[in-house]
Fold these 2 entries.
Entry 1:
Amino acid sequence: LGLKNEESFDRLVRLRELVKLLSISRANVYRLMKVGKFPQSIKLTERTVVWRLSELEAWVQERSTGHKTSK
């Protein structure tokens, strides 16, 4: 693919895998995207939509740093 050493291919995740990875419903994914609170999807073909794994990981990290556990 001609990628430089500092660049790497960001794995693409389809909706079915995203739902399993994040334990979030399909409807909630699109609802959050609509209001700008979830990474935008990438339309590869007419019927194939994916997300960058790195963006999903960053989204989870942002949400987890905002939560504080009380003991």
Entry 2:
Amino acid sequence: KPLVKVPETKNLTLKEAIKVLAENKLRYQLESGEGESSINSLIVDQTPKAGAQINEDGEVILYTKPNASQ
């Protein structure tokens, strides 16, 4: 499989992050730090980090927190 560069998703909402990952042919898995994840949750961290090279269709773990501004 071709390698793709992991995009930066930190500080995006979950909805935006999912779109960015899909555009890069990547899947995601959620780890919610506190409370339930919603589409407006903010991404606080990700594994692997932005700029890493992983296989197309690879998985990026997203760490979320509730978005206080919503």
